[in-house]
Amino acid sequence: MLKKEFKRKDVERMRNLIKGKSGESSELQVGYTGKKEDHKEGDIWEEGGKRWTIKDGIKQTATKLDKVKKEAILPLFCPNCKGLMKKQHDPKMYKIHKMCFDCVIDMEAKLKLKGKFEEYERNMISKNAEAYLNDLEQYLLEAINTSNTQYVSEQGEVERWKGGIDKEKFTKKMKEDFIKFRKQIDDYKQNKTDD
Ligand SMILES: [Zn+2]
User: Fold this and answer.
1) In angstroms, what is the span from residue 106 Cα to ligand 1's centroid?
2) Are 120 and 127 in contact (CB under 8 A)?
3) Could you tell me the distance, in angstroms and rounded to a whole number, from the CA of residue 117 to the centre of ligand 1?
4) d(CA 91, CA 110)
5) 25 DSSP 8-state letter
6) Local structure of residue 160 (DSSP, 8 states)
7) Which 8-state DSSP code applies to residue 84?
8) Which segments of 107-177 are extended strands (E)?
9) Ligand 1 center to residue 184 CA distance, Å?
10) For 148, which of 43, 45, 95, 164 could close a Cys bridge (C-beta 3.0–4.6 Å)?
C-alpha cells in the first residue's frame, strides 16, 4: 500500500547501516579509549547509570525492551465487550486497537456502512508507518551513539572503521531521510497520492 511512496529498500538500507550479526558474542569497543566490554546477545548490564542490552548484535538501552514487554501484556478480558480474549488474533488486535478481534471486525463493519472505512484504513496504515519510523529513528540514533567500530554497507558488507563513524555526517543524512519519509506518510494519509 505504501509501496510506492514509502520505499522498503530505503528503510532496509537505513536499518542495515549499522548492524552487527545477531547471535554472535559481541566484543564492544567503547568510545576511542580502547576499553573493551565482553557482553553477548541478551545480556543486561549497568553502565553509566543506564541499563544496556545486546539485541540482534546491537548494544542498546534496555528501557526500550522493558516498554515493549509491558505493551505486550494481554489482559484476560476485552475492555470493550468484556469477553474472554483467547482467540488466535486477539493478542495482535489488542496491541493495535485495545480490543478483541471480534470487536475490531464489528467496528470495521460499522465504518464500512458509514463509508468511513477508507479514511480509517489510511489512518491506521499511516499510524503504523509513523510508529515504525519513530522506532527506527531511535534505534539508529542509539546505534550511531553506541557503535563506533562497524558499519554495514548498502551491499550488506560489514566494514570496520578504526577511527569510528562520522556521527555528525551520519546523523545529518539520517535526519534528511526521515523528513522525506514523514512527508511521504503525510501525503499518503491525506490521500495526495494516486496509490
Ligand atoms: Zn471485544
Assistant:
1) 9
2) no
3) 19
4) 22
5) P
6) E
7) B
8) 150-152, 158-160
9) 34
10) 164
Q: Is 153 exposed, middle or buried (0-12, 13-18, 19+ CB in 10 A)?
A: exposed
Ligand 1 centroid–CA 111 distance in Å is: 16
pLDDT at 193 over 60: no
CA of 110 to the centre of ligand 1 (A): 15
Cα 102 to ligand 1 centroid, rounded to whole Å: 6
Say how many Å lie between the CA of residue 190 and the centre of ligand 1. Answer: 30
Q: Give the model confidence (pLDDT) of 111-121 as tens digits.
A: 999 999 999 99
Write the pLDDT tens digit of every residue in 33-73: 334 457 777 777 777 777 777 776 777 777 666 666 666 67
CA-based R_g, the chain, Å: 21
User: In angstroms, what is the span from residue 24 Cα to ligand 1's centroid?
Assistant: 42
b vs e for 73-98, b when ≥16 Cβ sit within 10 Å of the residue's Cβ? eeeeebebeeeebeeeebeebbeebe
The DSSP bridge partners found for residue 152 are 158
The pTM for the full model equals 0.50
Calpha distance 124→113 (Å, rounded): 18
Which single residue is written with the C-alpha cell 567500530? Answer: 149
Q: Report the alpha-carbon distance of residue 14 to residue 137 in Å, rounded.
A: 9
